[in-house]
Specification:
By secondary structure, the chain is of the alpha/beta class. It has helices spanning 24-37, 51-60, 87-94, 108-115, 119-135, 147-153, 155-167, 184-194, 213-223, 244-254, 262-265, 268-279, 300-308, 335-344, 354-368, 377-387, 436-448, 500-520; strands spanning 5-8, 41-45, 69-75, 99-105, 139-145, 172-177, 202-206, 227-230, 296-297, 326-327, 396-406, 412-422, 425-433, 459-467, 478-485, 490-497. Helix 13 crosses helix 14 (335-344) and helix 16 packs across helix 18. The two termini are 52 Å apart.
């Protein structure tokens, strides 16, 4: 298989995803990450379409790239106009990039119903635009929009649009499944046919409306395409674009295509999560290769096999893509999972010991009540150490009280008072908060800070509540998950109760005690 060119369109096509709005600074940060990953071409946006994209093209010139080439994107000239005076084409030249991508219509339905121009004029629009850009010393990638739909309904005309671009000197002709509705076998067969009449190197640009964009992209490469388009995490309009992260991993690990180096491949997880963070979108846990659950194992039988040979339940080495294996502890866990977790915590736990059986029994009982320890590894570590008598409480609660007051015309006010002991010393304090959990958190830290000043480094970053049995209404048990963070790590803790304050307190205490336990090991 010949060298494959990776073409990223996160900054343009991906930005059309619902909920994404990149600033110029965001786009520049993503560009640098993509260059580190070894992406060959990065589409920066549509110059002239908005001030933000023009600012990006001005600023991106200041960056120095190891491999990536920046591409400006636009369309063919407008109907019944001249290429030399067309605003879109002039904007592409003004972006001052060596590489340019333009799209044109390959589906006669679009030409007639959207452009409302003669079919021959559409061919001239393609040819004139490519020829004009080539005359201005640009390397031109021609995006044949809606090609696969056009090919199925009017094969001859769809191929004429490709020939127009090829004849004008297009350096790559990219076949677009713009509606995302083509089946994988059809993609392969159509590209095989296209290769018989088009000599220019081909590319593939697939959308994911049938959840087949990655498969279609891989099939296109196997059929002979040399350039593949996609976005990080599959971001894009409607159901998104082909996920370039999965494409890279499949090319490298499954097909042996050296599209990136081994070192660059190990950055895959970091890049996927970085772009998700910049996009302000939660990364899907079950994302192939790079998701938090991609190499997570829960069933006891699976864990037992994984510990003996990871290939039994893993199709790839998680470290090859910068991810890691996770062994989840839940009611489905067996002793192997418990033993592995204890080993990770540097605890000596014999396989057939009563403590192993007791830990497993406690876990299963608690998860039956609604606990979910695979999502709260901080609480899990505390539980194991408590059962093994390897943990001593850092403080003892005497009592706490939370008062919520609402006066007519005034704001809601919350105050928490707390009484606890550290050793023989009694501490009694109070604190205001935005709500009961915030007030309790503030009061607890206030009471403990003179004993444990390192708690000043810690803060809560997330708080989640889930009703476990909606049929019980307001009397239902709730599960509370709290994420905490200090300068080095973050961790989750859990609480379950019919009383949301009690469940929150359990998770809150675990979060503080986990921090104190962690620091005591240092």
């Amino acid at each position: 298989m010949s060298k494959i060119e990776l073409y990223d369109t996160t900054l343009r096509d991906g930005a059309q995803s619902e909920g994404i709005s990149f600033s110029v600074s965001d786009k520049l940060k993503i560009v640098e990450k993509l260059d580190d990953l070894g992406i060959h071409f990065i589409e920066g946006g549509w110059p002239g379409a908005n001030p933000k994209d023009m600012e990006f093209f001005r600023n991106v010139k200041k960056l120095r790239f190891k491999r990536s080439k920046i591409v400006a994107f636009g369309s063919t000239r407008h109907a019944n106009s001249k290429a030399g005076t067309d605003k879109v084409l002039k904007g592409l030249l003004a972006a001052d990039t060596r590489y340019v991508t333009i799209f044109g219509k390959s589906w006669d339905l679009h030409v007639r119903d959207v452009f409302k121009v003669d079919l021959e004029e559409n061919l001239r629009m393609v040819e004139d635009s490519v020829r004009f850009l080539k005359a201005n010393n640009r390397i031109v990638f021609y995006d044949a929009e809606h090609f696969f739909d056009g090919y199925r309904t009017n094969k001859d005309y769809a191929l004429k649009t490709l020939k127009a671009a090829e004849g004008a000197g297009a350096d790559r002709i990219v076949l677009c499944d713009t509606n995302g509705g083509t089946m994988t076998s059809q993609v392969f067969e159509i590209i095989e046919e296209v290769k018989k009449v088009i000599r220019a190197p081909l590319g593939i640009h697939a959308h994911n409306d049938c959840d087949m964009a990655v498969a279609n992209s891989i099939a296109a490469i196997q059929a002979g395409c040399v350039q593949v388009h996609g976005t990080v995490n599959g971001y894009g309009e409607r159901c998104g674009n082909a996920n370039l992260i999965s494409i890279i991993a499949n090319l490298k690990l499954k097909l042996g295509v050296d599209c990136v180096s081994d070192l660059e491949l190990r950055q895959l997880t970091e890049v996927a999560r970085f772009v998700a963070e910049i996009s302000n979108l939660k990364m899907n846990d079950n994302e192939p290769f790079v998701g938090n659950s991609a190499f997570a194992h829960k069933a006891g039988v699976h864990v037992n096999a994984i510990l003996k040979n990871p290939r039994t339940y893993e199709h790839a080495d998680p470290h090859s893509v910068g991810n890691h294996r996770r062994l989840l502890i839940s009611e489905l866990s067996g002793r192997s999972t418990i033993l592995k977790k204890a080993e990770d915590l540097d605890l000596d736990l014999p396989k057939d010991s009563l403590k192993t059986k007791k830990i497993l029994k406690v876990l299963q009982d608690l998860e039956n009540k609604g606990y979910h320890f695979e999502a709260a590894e901080g609480s899990l570590e505390l539980l194991i150490k408590r059962v093994m008598k390897k943990f001593k409480d850092f403080f003892d609660l005497e009592d706490f009280r939370v008062i919520i007051e609402k006066k007519k015309g005034g704001k809601m006010a919350t105050e928490a008072t707390i009484k606890l002991r550290v050793g023989k010393e009694l501490e009694h304090t109070a604190s205001l908060g935005d709500g009961p959990v915030n007030a309790l958190d503030s009061a607890l830290r206030k009471a403990l800070k003179k004993f444990y000043p390192n708690l000043n480094e810690m803060h809560l970053t997330d708080y989640k509540v889930r009703v476990l049995d909606e049929k019980e209404g307001t009397a239902a048990r709730v599960r509370v998950l709290i994420q905490s963070q200090d300068k080095d790590n973050s961790w989750w803790t859990i609480g379950v109760s019919e009383n949301i304050i009690e469940a929150s307190w359990q998770a809150l205490v675990d979060s503080v005690e986990y921090k104190l336990l962690k620091d005591s090991k240092l």
